[in-house]
């Protein structure tokens, strides 16, 4: 079955990709498509989408970007050449979609689990990949044998037995060969109708045509509207193949006759080889001419050309069948995705949930993250945390199971929306402690661990510490837990946000940290004095917030980011009251933004001692002030 479908993918579902201009049709569309195994592929100007119903009955989608025609090299857009280019691109894209759909729709229960495991460990590939390669190669060989070698053999057989009637190398010889090719083509289509799985594929072909017709007639894409539309379409690949057959008969007859007349070859074996190669060489010419003919026929709706279209329509009656509602849903979803991709450059690509290689999945994720200005390392984190392996082991090839792939792709697609990785996972690691985070709090950054190190070093037995603008509580928790190993200290954490405090309390309980949580706008509700006060206050200039990375600007709380006009508002507020809450000889440790340290030192000019600590990147990150 797979071999037959492969041949069908190579020969029976080509899409010309030209705009239709039909009577009574209000929408022109560049979108074409083809049926695949248990689904439909649609192809537009900038994207192609394949929707397949998997073995559980659920719809899966794969969508990817393609190069639009206007961005191709100029020579590729010339008349006749463009037909060859479109043919090759459609053939390759359609073949890939067909094979990818088989990975989703066909469950290979026949492969023993031990064989699957052995193949994966031995060759780092899945059984499905091996079957796909074999089926593809076999499909191409069978296609060449059926549509080139067999007609050539039959024509030569008749010529050898009846040389007076059909002399070898004459025009009638090549016309006879072309006639055999056309008959074989029609018989092949009729043969495929014997198989239930292929009849089902033809139903998806009908769903594809009906959906495109529905859109072109300006009707909403609903199942009921699509059901009422025709299965016939001028840009159908079946019609294209019929045109290819007719043009190849005429072209091969003329070229073959001229070649034999002026370059006769006496050796029978060599003559057969040269004849076969000559046909292969002329195939691009046939495709280019056929494309222009199909394009012209699709644009002309006069009854005069109806006889030219009629054979194609007749063959479409064989290669399309009435689809079910579920099949139409596939076609509509694929069509709408391509529409969205053509209309919106930011419409995300999608990937099927299938068994695949780790390296292939990782490369795909990194590529798309880079295109969206997302840190490529996030792809490694997603794989590492989902597969429960260190990032260093991701270089070791392995096969990702379908279940693992589903989990990974769900996280990957959510990350593509711009949502920060640690909000997606719901937690992050800070100074060796698990800290739960969501959009109510900032995500603790690694550079903030410099502040924690300085705080731990500054605290002694019996000291009291206050952490202002605590957010998730990460700083207070890390200091309290580390100091609890060798000294007794008292830690209080404060924040103005009720939402942030709820997250902080949860993190305190989870890490069993001895931290007192209170609500306070800086020192508003603080009582007593402390040996150490820490803070990672908002320090982004108000005007710079719209320029931040999307994941920060759109997802992290602005209350924890906005530091006022110059970014130093909170530092000035802390400086105005710090002396009331810090003991003599006590310390204030503040995190700051890039190039802010010197200005902060000026704000705290009335102190006994101050210094700046740089992070691992050499940037001034922490200000230490002694009173």
Structural summary, described in words:
The strands form 4 sheets. This protein has a 7-stranded mixed β-sheet with strand order 11-10-9-12-13-15-14, sandwiched between helices. Strands 1-2-3-4 form a 4-stranded antiparallel β-sheet. The protein has a two-stranded antiparallel ribbon with strand order 5-6. Helix content is 52%, strand content 13%. The protein has 3 domains: 2-136 and 147-343, no CATH class; 356-417; 442-626, 3-Layer(aba) Sandwich (Rossmann fold), CATH 3.40.50. The protein contains 21 helices and 15 strands. Helix 1 packs antiparallel against helix 2 (81-105), helix 4 (127-161) runs antiparallel to helix 5 and helix 5 packs antiparallel against helix 8 (237-262). With 627 residues, the protein is of the alpha/beta class.
Q: How would you briefly describe this protein structure?
A:
With 627 residues, the protein is an alpha/beta fold.
SSE layout:
Layout: H1 2-11, E1 32-36, E2 39-43, E3 47-53, E4 59-65, H2 81-105, H3 113-123, H4 127-161, H5 171-192, H6 196-216, H7 223-227, H8 237-262, H9 268-299, H10 306-319, H11 325-343, E5 356-357, H12 358-371, H13 377-387, E6 399-400, H14 402-416, H15 421-425, E7 427-430, E8 433-436, H16 449-458, E9 464-468, H17 474-483, E10 490-495, H18 498-511, E11 515-519, E12 530-535, H19 550-553, H20 569-581, E13 582-591, H21 597-603, E14 609-614, E15 620-626
Parallel strand pairs: 9-10, 9-12, 10-11, 12-13
Antiparallel strand pairs: 1-2, 2-3, 3-4, 5-6, 7-8, 13-15, 14-15
Helix pairs in contact: 1-2, 1-4, 2-9, 4-5, 5-8, 6-11, 8-9, 8-10, 12-13, 13-14, 16-17
